[in-house]
Amino acid sequence: MFSPGTDQIILVDENNRALGSAEKHAAHRSGLLHRAFSVFLCDGGGRVLLQQRHASKYHSGGLWANSCCGHPRIGERTKTAARRRVHEELGVGVDLTFGFRARYHTSFANGLHENEIVYVYFGRLDDAPQPDRSEISDVTFVSLDDIAHDVRRRADAYAYWFRYYFESHFDEVARGVAQAAGTPPRASTKRAGAHGR
Predict the structure, then answer these.
(1) Which entry of 68, 89, 114, 116 is annotated as an active-site residue?
(2) pLDDT by residue (tens digit) across 121-178?
């Protein structure tokens, strides 16, 4: 669960050069550009593990998102931070592979902002997740096609950044999931419609 004043995150410029640090809640309140990561975990069939964010999260509570998200600490490698956070939130250890980097910015009704350069990682989950119930309300495995269909149908059920990945980086997500799962690459892709852009 988020606790103001406990975490310092890395501030960056548009070229992803570190500029300094700020307390996490203050950075999100001011909309400062910072470094982050997102993780897509899948099973051997290529289904993606989604998490429903706990209602008490500082924004996007109750919405569905990808397997894990977070921020590297000062002096912490981003991949190391991603593995740490997967273990903290889902209770599992996984090998992660870098997929792509994304850049997005959005504002929320509570006055907070996400303004991030995000490293997106992929991994295969062979053990049953054990979610931290103070962070995650529920988890489920869903195919990429079913996610894309549901994002078009129920956009408001999903966190902004998750919709953004499906709208703007679907090919990269599909490729990363296929590589992590060890399944053949998709012959064609099925993009989600544009929502909340």
Answers:
(1) 116
(2) 999 999 999 999 999 999 999 999 999 999 999 999 999 999 999 999 999 999 999 9
d(CA 101, CA 103): 7
Residues 42-66 have a mean pLDDT of 89
Q: Which of 69, 89, 114, 135 is catalytic?
A: 69
Which pair of structure tokens corresponds to residue 187?
């012959």
CA distances (Å), origin 7, targets 3, 21, 26, 112: 8, 10, 10, 16
Is-catalytic flag, 116? yes
Task: Look at residue 188 and tell me whether its pLDDT is greater than 70.
Answer: no
Distances (CA, A) of 172 to 113, 120, 142: 25, 10, 17
| HSE value, Cβ hemisphere, 13 Å, CA-based, for 132 | 16
Radius of gyration from C-alpha coordinates of the chain: 16
- 69 in catalytic set: yes
Cβ contacts of 19 within 8 Å, gap of 6 or more: 11, 12, 13
User: How much is the pLDDT for 184?
Assistant: 80
Q: Take residue 80 and report the two structure tokens written for it.
A: 């190391």
pLDDT averaged over every residue in the chain:
89
